[in-house]
Amino acid sequence: MNNFCVAHRGFSGKAPENTRAAFKLAMSVPYVKWLEIDVQLTRDGVPVVIHDFSVDRTTTGKGKVKDLTWREIRTMDAGIWKGSQFEGEQVPSLDEVLQMVKGRLKVNIELKTSGDMYPGLEEKVLERVRAHQMLSEVVITSFEPKALLRAKELEPEVKVGLIIDAHPRDLLSRLKKLGCSFLSIGYSHLDASFASELLKNGITPMAWTVDDRRSMAALARMNPEIMICTNRPDMWGQLFSNGFAPRIPFWDKWKGWFR
């Protein structure tokens, strides 16, 4: 298997999603080369790594992320829901995650927003990416086209990608208008022909979220350039034992970025 493995919210099949524990576990797997994370802003403007718009599901706290301060969120346990062995895990800041993975994993940063929910989110995220000198190691993605346009306006060199769980006929033209070099798409909407068309136009597809070996293998056979996002990198490992070979790139091969 030549396709890149992307750990969805870290190794979230075994550890609490979007926590240091999930990221550490992902980094311990040699064939994981990408990390996918979700970023929102606290009430006091700190970029934090959490998926839901509220903290209710994945922490011991209550309330919407945008209504809580960084200090308030930091007191919440973000691991106990997954198991007692993860008790004490916290919601990490974007700063902490970038510092943790720099030079080890590429990062797909999803701007988790809806409409104008988070004014300044793009600027705050790019500030932290620049501070860690990781502009060449990240791609900014979002369901919100306006967020991608804003990110490109603020930093023309940043790579951006649309997230979509559909395949409208005009998708390729929409991606070009947004300046995308990346597409994050629900895996059931991707086929070999469309993957090839995307790649010919300089757009790398990432299929999400793929947690069974059969689907992983089917995507891999479509095209070796399809990135596969999964909660279960261990399933990926089981494919290796069945005769697939992992892609282990060297960093100097990334001058052309995805290909």
TrEMBL record:
Example GO molecular function: phosphoric diester hydrolase activity
A Gene Ontology biological process term: lipid metabolic process
Pfam families (UniProt xref): GDPD
InterPro entries: GP_PDE_dom (IPR030395), PLC-like_Pdiesterase_TIM-brl (IPR017946)
Top-rank lineage group of the source organism: Bacteria
SUPFAM superfamilies with a match to the protein in the record: PLC-like phosphodiesterases
Domain GP-PDE: 3-240
Transmembrane portions of the chain: none
Designated name of the protein: Glycerophosphoryl diester phosphodiesterase
